[in-house]
Design a protein that fits this description.
Blueprint: E1 6-12, H1 17-29, E2 35-41, H2 44-51, H3 60-77, H4 87-94, H5 97-109, H6 114-126, H7 135-145, H8 149-157, H9 162-177, E3 185-190, E4 193-198, H10 203-210
Parallel strand pairs: 1-2
Antiparallel strand pairs: 1-3, 3-4
Length: 226
């Protein structure tokens, strides 16, 4: 019997394109490395407020850098990221609260579907420039990901319940307790120690902590097609 898998927690918000990159890389490695990947839907606006941080896009030079950075990283990681045309409206006005509450409900009721529904919401906002705020948009994403219309409607009805609201709040607070000041955050539990890694560009360091082999963002024999 080999060593027990190490637990990795990925705290993410679908409003964060860098979270999408981390998400896809870790989903590719979850059956290669000896890990147990836990997806942790969080609320990035709550983390930013708690830490006193501000969205990088609010600074013109950072915004310009981020635009080029995301485009190149999308090509490198093989994730079809495209900036929304009305970027500031999507990020600063519409936000992601209902979407992240919906994913929290998915995680509570149908955790086996969390990966697919999360991916479809990212595809909508960060690839096809589609809405993720309106109820019909969320239902469309859920059904495209494989949930039945009845399941999707049932989950949507739960986004305003105390259970879902409190769970998203608790998960976000947990990320903050780990030291989060933005997303994505990967928390690795290794040999009795907890390591918090920020951003999508710490995967090589993560492999080192785990004692695993880093084979790039698209490891051999793994299809990256989305």
């Amino acid at each position: 019997m080999g060593p027990l898998p190490r637990t990795l927690e990925l705290f993410y918000d679908v409003l964060s394109p860098y979270s999408w990159l981390s998400f896809e890389i870790l989903c590719r490695y979850k059956n290669i490395w000896n890990i147990r990947l836990q997806l942790r839907p969080s609320f990035i606006a709550g983390i930013m407020k708690d830490s006193g941080n501000k969205p990088p896009a609010l600074l013109p030079r950072k915004a310009k850098y981020m635009t080029n950075d995301i485009q190149l990283l999308g090509q490198h990681v093989q994730v079809p990221i495209q900036f929304p045309k009305d970027f500031f409206s999507v990020i600063l006005e519409k936000g992601s609260l209902r979407a992240m509450r919906f994913l929290t409900a998915v995680n509570l009721e149908h955790p086996e579907m969390l990966e697919k529904v999360s991916r479809e919401l990212w595809m909508r906002v960060w690839s096809r420039d589609e809405d993720i705020v309106e109820p019909q948009s969320i239902l469309a994403a859920a059904e495209k990901a494989g949930l039945s219309a009845q399941q999707a409607r049932g989950l949507l009805e739960k986004v305003s319940t105390p259970q879902v609201k409190n769970q998203l709040k608790e998960t976000t607070e947990t990320a903050c307790k780990h030291g989060a000041f933005g997303l994505p955050v990967t928390v690795a539990h290794v040999d009795g120690q907890t390591h918090m890694l920020f951003g999508s560009d710490r995967m090589e360091l993560l492999a080192y902590l785990l004692g695993e082999k880093w084979m790039g963002p698209v490891p051999p024999a793994v299809s990256a097609r989305l």
